[in-house]
Amino acid sequence: MVLAIDIGTTTCKAALFDRSGNLQQLAKVPVSIHSDANGAQETAPRYWSAAVATLCDELQAKGNVRSVVVSGNGPTVVPVFAEPTLFDGSLHAQTGMARLWLDRRAVVEAAEISQATGSFVDASFVLPQVLHLSRTAPATYAKTRTFLSSCEYVNYLLTGEARAILHADDALRWYWTDTVLDHFGLDKDKFPEFCRPGDLVGKVTAYASRSLGLPLGIPVFAAGPDFLVSILGCAVVEPGMVCDRSGTSEGINLCTRTPLDDDRLMTYLHPVKPFYNISGIISTSGKAIGWAKSLLGMDRLPFEDMYAAMAKAPAGSGGLVFLPYLTGERAPLWDPDAKGVFSGLTLSAGRESLLRSVAEGVCFAMRDVITVMEELGGNVEALRITGGPSESRFLNQLKADVTGRPVAVPLIGDAELVGSMVIARTALGDYPSFADAARQLVTIGETYDPDTTLGGLYADLFERYRATYRNLRETWRK
Predict the structure, then answer these.
(1) What DSSP letter does each residue of 438-465 carry, written as one string?
(2) pLDDT tens digits for the chain (478 residues)?
């Protein structure tokens, strides 16, 4: 069996898959994050190590595992101080706080790096986060032995090997180069060597085996950021297909034959050669829906009740439009100053219409990314939806209606876990390529066609959505 682990922003997950790709066991553990008014969004890496221990405890067939693969949220930066060890029987490494991809403190550093390199760099990327840390917490920077992402940190705990996962050479601009490190006076020896998805990171150590109950010496293969691994977990391996990976944030990834070079989106090589991946990341999608659920008095109710309340409101939420920019926005705006907005509030607005407008706003953000993709020459034929929100039939249909594209949902909704399994099975030699493994191992469940009678309504509201941002963006910068 293959053990796949995902270090999510608010939830850590693990699954065991058999040789046929069937999900045998699944476990999930919540983790907490810390935020403040200065833009900090952090978590303690010890929460991840504790979560992995709990997950492995819950999975019963660990002794039959052939390999381990870990994906994770990102870009996230973990300053690691020491080698892994056992502490009170638990696997542990001394670290500073992990800076999550939501963290917005490095806006100034991102602008400096963008100017120095000539390529757009966002505040969430690794290098601006490290540069900001070196300036604001020099003692932490000095203590740091190596900087790792969330999944790389767990790989480090399992194997004792520090490796950064680079999915393609053309993605280096979102990581680091020796030239840029030298330019900003950062220590090159604090940045680990790169490896690729499917490469062997190392083998499970005696410490990890004793702590987690895993077989000693089994291989740990590199996976990468969850939104990229999900591409394989949805079998988005043909041009025109989109993987929409929804969770706290939303990753929209289009497979194309040619690159679409534009700073509004990220373009790099697809995991399946010779294709390209065109990526747009929405900062707060599920986070915005969860925020509205809590704000409007439904925090103790299941999500099914919230979606049922949304369904009671009319399509278009009575003209109410929501901008889901609660922590700024990444693609396609790349605007750290953007704010969340309800536009069109009247006395007739109720809880149901407010809730629905938030979900529609997230779908408009998706449509914004898709529209830019097509403006640049991309062809978006269909969406494959994954992540926790894909369990909602209401939300899946809403995405189809607002984007005007058919939506398909894989039978196993945790595509990052399935994608990790695809990578492991290929690395083990069971399949000749990621594409072959994905086609064989991924099964599609339900499909949703857009309601064509709503096309005009959502086209008009989408124009209002875009106009609202255009009309307000300068006020946020004052």
Answers:
(1) HHHH--EEEEE---GGGHHHHHHHHHHH
(2) 999 999 999 999 999 999 999 999 999 999 999 998 888 999 999 999 999 999 999 998 777 999 999 999 989 999 999 999 876 678 888 999 999 999 999 999 999 999 999 988 999 999 999 999 999 999 999 999 999 999 999 999 999 999 999 988 878 878 999 999 999 999 999 999 999 999 999 999 999 999 999 999 999 999 999 988 999 999 999 999 999 999 889 999 999 999 998 989 999 899 998 999 999 999 999 999 999 999 999 999 999 999 999 999 999 999 999 999 999 999 999 999 999 999 999 999 999 999 999 999 999 999 999 999 999 999 999 999 999 899 999 999 999 999 999 999 999 999 999 999 999 999 999 999 999 999 999 999 999 999 999 999 999 999 999 999 999 999 998 7
Residue 245: Cβ-neighbour burial (10 angstroms; 0-12, 13-18, 19+): buried
DSSP E strand stretches across 93-181: 98-99, 146-148, 163-165
Residues 6 or more apart whose Cβ sits within 8 Å of residue 171 = 268, 269
What residues form DSSP beta bridges with 23? 17
Q: From CA 262, how far away is CA 384, in angstroms rounded?
A: 24
Residue identified by tokens 């994954």 is 386
200/69 Cα distance (integer angstroms):
10
Two tokens at 238? Answer: 């043909």
Q: Which of 321, 325, 313, 314 has its CA nearest to residue 281? A: 325
Which among 32, 86, 84, 23 is positioned nearest to 443, based on CA atoms? 23
Specify whether 268 is located in the same domain as 213. no
- Domain membership flag for residue 227: no
Which residue in the block uniquely carries the two structure tokens 């009671």?
312
| Residue 78 contacts residue 153 (beta carbons within 8 Å) | yes
- Examine the domain organization and report whether 293 and 144 are in the same domain: no
**CB-side neighbour CA atoms (13 Å) of 409:** 24
Tokens of 25: 């066991």
- 385 sits in which H/E element: strand 382-386
- How many whole angstroms separate alpha carbon 199 and alpha carbon 220? 9
Domain count, the chain: 2
Task: Assign 339 to helix, strand or coil.
Answer: coil
Residue 258 identity = T
Query: In sequence order, which residues have a C-beta less than 8 Å from that of residue 278 and are 6 or more positions away?
Result: 253, 254, 256, 259, 260, 265, 266, 267, 373, 376, 378
Residue 405 shares a structural domain with residue 432: yes
Q: Are residues 435 and 292 in the same domain?
A: yes
Residues 365 and 451 occupy one common structural domain: yes
CA dist., res. 346 & res. 366, Å (int): 26
Same domain membership, residue 209 and residue 334: no
Residues contacting 119, CB < 8 A, separation 6+: 173
